[in-house]
Amino acid sequence: MEQKTFKPTDPHSFSQPQEARVKHLKWTSTIDFSTKIITAVASWTIESIEDADVIIFDIKDIKIAKVTLDDDQPTEFKIAERDSILGEALAVMIKPYTKTINISYTTSPGAEALQWLSPEQTAGKKFPFLFTQSQAILARSWVPCQDSPSVRFTYEADVTVPKDLLALMSASNPQQKNETGVYHFEMKQPVPSYLLALSVGDLQFQAISNRSGIYAEPSMLQKSVWEFADLEKMISGAEELYGPYQWDRYDVLVLPPSFPFGGMENPRLTFATPTVIAGDRSLTSLIAHELAHSWSGNLVTNATWNDFWLNEGFTVYFETRIMEKLYGKDHAEMLASLNLQDLHNEIKDLNEAGLHADTKLKLDLDDRNPDDGVTEVAYVKGYFFLRSIEEKYGKDKFDTFLKDYFYDNGFKSMNTEGFMTYIKEYYQKKFNIAFDDQLFQSWIFSEGVPENCPRPSSDRFKKVDVVIAGWNAEQNLDKSKAGDWTTQEWLHFLKNLPDTLSQQQMQSIDNFGKFTQSGNAEIISAWSVIAIRNNYQRMDPVIEAFLINTGRRKFLGPIYNELIKTEQGKQKAKVIYSKARSNYHFVATNTFDKLLN
Q: What is the pTM of this model?
């Protein structure tokens, strides 16, 4: 079986879409919780150039039973040698008139995208649960696909699940269980493979508006609906800023605690961590972030994972503007200030690890796992780069630009160089403003944060700074001054404490903020790091329980990293990890297996 050689357009995909590309997926599957296997047929409608004789798919640990063309004509296929990061290339022989490829297969019980939870790992404790996490390149472990963000397709699916469970996808969704356990889905807008999503569990739905609502396990539903009461206001606010929402519905699925991210922007069905259910609506900027992805990322998508900042930098900018519109400028500035602090810490850590090049916006992740690029650099340095343009040339101009950028490039992919060309031409033509190449050089292609980075300023944080200064001077904390502090103010307080504190000081601070008793995951995570650093043993059982019952990588990383700084802490971390690991998704274990050997 001969194969032409094309230069791959994406370093993280074997597919060669310039020769033959997928356009539509019909997916028929059965979900088996007893074996932790999906048995499926992926029927792909394709398009190819005139002399194409092969189409290439990405797969990883998938067992191919058979491959046929069109109406079940047999064909040759070949699976290349396995790459530890990318998996395998599946090459299928095609004819000039081939329209459909039918791939019958089963997933592996250890498929990296799939997390199978036992009933004990759910809130309800009665039924098992399954969810997928396809970003960045894990879709290939549950659907043979051209697993590059530059390849878009529409899809439909028929999914069979146990009759007492509900199936949901990143598509048109049912709102209640049916008698058959067979569910049909359609996604009419073209999406890249990393936005393929499936979840199966004991789930219920409640509407927030006529186009938005919440799915959750029954015991979590009312809390979640209360927490996300402003969902429709967020969608309407986003539309006022940057144009119509183009995905029909916007629903949120609150997952069990092992979900490795804060949220995942699967179109029509954002997956969200239960760690944002704080009971005071203080962490809902996460939902604003995932909603903003409906424009930046889902609508205009990074062409490769080296351009990841185009998805995330734009989204943090948009999220911050939504929060400003709903809750005021000072609230948005608090979020931006905390983000900037996190960015400086991340850059320090990357530099200490010798990963200086990872502090650039344009990444070089060739021969690396694209998850290595999921740092505050893409998110927060990207945000401040866009904010620097907004501040220099005016918010009105930047808003006009963004609205047109999303409209002109909707349902397409964009790389860094394409973005630079677009914004330069746009500002020149529309506003007669010429961008200096140095702007792009200093922000996109240089390490670290430029000198002219915008500096957010919050009046509320200034008042917190007065409390911290008073404590530094007199060791006195007045509870009345923190009466109405939000989560963000408490985080600012914690992040600006001295590194070294005595046991008496730790106790005094704990009495002031009641941090050890907190039910807020952001607070617990920040306080845990301080407690470990200062050997505040009262937090030990809280830290262990938090690490075992939380799968969100953002919270786990700082705690495990702080624990391993001492020999005693390292042993403690390994003991806790051995108990916690089965609750984590592959995305988390892939990070922490390396960290903890």
A: 0.94
